Amino acid sequence: MSNFIYCSVFYNNLNSTNDRKMEKLNKRALRLVCNNYTCTYTELLENTGKLMLYVYRKFHLVEHVYKTLNGFALPVESHFFEKQNAPYNFRDDYKLKQPKFKTIMYGYKSLAYQGAILWNNLPNNIKNVEDFSQFKTLIRKCLNLIECHCGTCLICPKNNL
Known about the structure:
Number of strands: 0
Largest sheet: none
Structural class: mainly alpha
Distance between the termini: 19 Å
Strand content: under 5%
Radius of gyration: 17 Å
Shape: globular
Helix content: 40-55%
């Protein structure tokens, strides 16, 4: 598992083909380790208490955004995420700017854009937590972060491996 999620923040922009290959490899590894060749991938994940690799990458990206915003990351990365400033108060005053993009690979799937989207979808009570370990436990419980119904990504109920 450590090989699959090592530096997952920086290869978060995998195309769907490579993403599927990694998930299938994870599925084969789980089948081998559990010695279970009849269950579905979701049943294997539930039995082992694991999540899809796609979900792990999203969690790690949100954790990286938290570290960057709170000064725990490298100083070079501090410009990746900018807080959104408005002349008046919003209910959610801790949103990040979503950078404009021209290409899918280096714009839409970039660390700055995807991190801002995930961060902005978090509830305020999680964003405002000051302790990183508490943030991690809250983010693991917040599965609405990864719910999706677009029909194209790996976590959609419409796409089964």
